[in-house]
What does this fold into?
Amino acid sequence: MSWVDSVIQGLLLGGQYALIACGLSLAFGVMRIVNLAHGDLAVCGAYLALVMSSALGAPVWYLLPLLLPIAFLAGLAPQVLLFGRALRHGVLAPVLVTFGLSVMIENLLQVAATSDPRGLNGGELALASFHIGRQITVSWLFMAAFLTACAVLSGLQLLLSRTSWGRKVRATADDLDTARLVGIRVRPLFATVMGIAVATAALAGVFIGTIGTFDPYQGTNTLIFAFEAVVIGGIGSLWGTLIGGMALGVTQVVVGQINQAYAVLAVHLLFLAVLAVRPNGLFAGHQAAREAGALR
Amino acid sequence: MTSPAPDPLLDVSGLDVFYGDFQALFGVSLSVAGGRATALVGANGAGKTTLLRTIAGAQPPAAGSVRYRGQDLTAAPPHRRISAGIALVPEGRKLFGSLTVEENIQVGAAAAASADWPLRRIYHVFPMLARRRGQRASTLSGGEQQAVAIARALAAAPTLLLLDEISLGLAPRVVGELYQTLTALRAEGATLLIVEQDLRRAMTECDDLVCLLEGRVALAAPVPAVTREQVVAAYFGEGTRRAAK
It folds into this structure.
């Protein structure tokens, strides 16, 4: 029974990883930008929630309608000011720029908020749980994170497949130069994509801060898991990212039950194994092959 | 009916275009009158594609100007040129392979000049695309893909359509069908600038002819005013240059 419990807890944990990872996946899939500051932006979201939550004295959930638009707008700025320029200078420049941004964010947070670990006020939800059978207890907070991840992924998928914005995003992801030539205004489009990516990062940051604690340097660690979820699932595949996150989560919890010391190592080994066997990830393989097939 | 309008629709003058250190166009000037079809011919590397891409805004010129309906578009980004009425069917089709046929066409309307070309009208021109509307563009045959590329440009409701080697790699019968479509578009008032490798087709389908040679205009005249021999001479460069090759 405890194995079933581990798998369930692992799947739920995977939802959190997927929630952090989906913005990373979106930014990379569309703009070919590996945003090394993504984890730090999530942590920024947690700090912003902390400031707002203590100023207004309310649990963080009530602040989301305010927090997410702020994060969206905050995401437009680095895209317009930094990433857009960096993208014009080859593949390496954006990596360096986002790495620099990551270091700056961590140090600014350190100066502004010290390195004390903090937590967010999750209200009653943080303590509530329900039971499956006799022995399995599921935290509502974990469940909420998982359901939020599913909702965000479904929402993004719908936006991408059903709206004219999504059509333009997919066209641009296919072929940037031709997208410009047919009249798509790429700069504002990229800015909105980054805005959405940062908003999802901030949302993930709120869950990170409510479920555990956070400090200024948490972003890097967060990024590694998100990055691994994206690569395992297959770059550019949002649902693949969810599967990738769940694979990481289950591995971590199940191995952790055998020996806690090897839990995180097992996650990284899984990542390396997938990379060795299917470098394109679990779900991008057939799509990449199909695209390569007829077009050129 | 075929007499050129006093004011040209498109007026390109003195274009110099570079790719890094390599100069692709040397002072190219060209004007296209409304309602006419102009063939742009020349050997490989003569600068035909570069000229179309410069007109469409993909390639900034180092010198010269692109004017459309009297409006200076030399520094305008592609979406503004499309809104002004210029649409390009790029060489090699360049469809968005993961999008469906219909989505490819809809993306073409992103900066449309007007609402004159709704999907319904496009499917009327290309009935075979209506049947394939939900299919991924990458799964289509070459001729169908070329039709999608033209349909995508039409969705922008252009007054000037730039077509780059639409017959490349297609069976003669399919090319014939595509040109029939172009004839129908001309009857509705479209102005065309067509890059065409097949000289005979270029001279039967178009009103005017411009021949590029190594990045310069070697010949520009109405088709009835030139002979095939004159065009061939301009195509390869006259006398001495031809001998040198």
User: Anything to note?
Assistant: The CA atoms of residues 91 and 156 of chain B lie 18 Å apart. Chain B touches chain A at residues 56-58, 77-79, 82-83, 87-88, 90, 92, 94-99, 103-104, 106-108, 110-112, 136-140, 152-153, 156 (CB under 8 Å).
